[in-house]
Every structure is written in C-alpha cells, then in structure tokens.
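Listing S7. Sequence submitted for prediction.
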Amino acid sequence: MAEPQPPNVHEGVDPTDEPPATAPPASAEDRKAAAALSSLDSQHTVSDEPSKTKNIDQEALAKAISRLELSTGAKGVESTELHVSEKERDFREKRRREREERERVAKVKVDGGDVALLIQELELSKTSATDLLRSHGGDAVKAMRAYVTAAV
C-alpha cells in the first residue's frame, strides 16, 4: 500500500505547473465579444424554480447577442449578407464565367483527323489535342498557332 500523502499534495498535479495565462483581447471588437460571453458565464442565483433561471439565461443570452450585433454593426443575417465584399462578388463572377466557358467548350465537336494531325505534329496526347481543338472552336490552324505562340 502507498503511504498517506500530506493534505497539500494532490495526485497528478505538478506544483511547478502554472495555469496557462490567457492573453487579453487585442481589439475593441474582441473585448466586446469577451464581455458578451462573460455575461453568459456570470454567476446566477440558484432558485427553486427552473423557469426563473431559464429566463435569466435567456436575458443574458439576449444581452450578449445585442452587444455582439452592436460591435459588428449587424442587424441580423440579412444585413451580413448585404456586406459581401467586392472581391467575393468578383470571384463568384469569375467562377461563373469559367464554368460557362467550360460548358461551351465541352459542346464543340472536333474532327478525328484534326486530332490526329495535332497528335502527330505537336506530339500531344489525344486528350490534350482534343482539349486544344475544343478551346479553339474545332479549328486546327488556330489551335496550332495558339500552341506554338504560347510555347515561345
């Protein structure tokens, strides 16, 4: 059996360990969010009625949410959707155009003889030759010029 330990010694705890210090919030928005969260964690008086504590929790939650909304300037989900950045809109528009271009190119019919010509002259794989032809509207001359010009 193990011998009894003094009351100030706890199993598994190293006395040299210090609890990790949390850094204070850097920005005003972070401080407001921390205040809102701490209001949720505040001590409540325990009552015999669970509905009363539920109302207190609801009030603390509503107060925290209103503080967060004030700090971000948002009035709900709808207004945050209105603040989509211009970069995001440009990115979405670019993706949409690229998708439309891929769909248009996929519909282009290519001649097997033109594919064979590109394979033989440019030493491309069949898929690369087909993609090159499709991207230039099935015109072998345009495809070859574009390939040679891009390589230079």
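Caption to Listing S7: primary sequence and predicted structure tokens for the chain studied. The two ends are 84 Å apart (CA to CA). The helical segments are 28-41, 50-72, 77-82, 86-106, 112-122, 126-135, 140-151.
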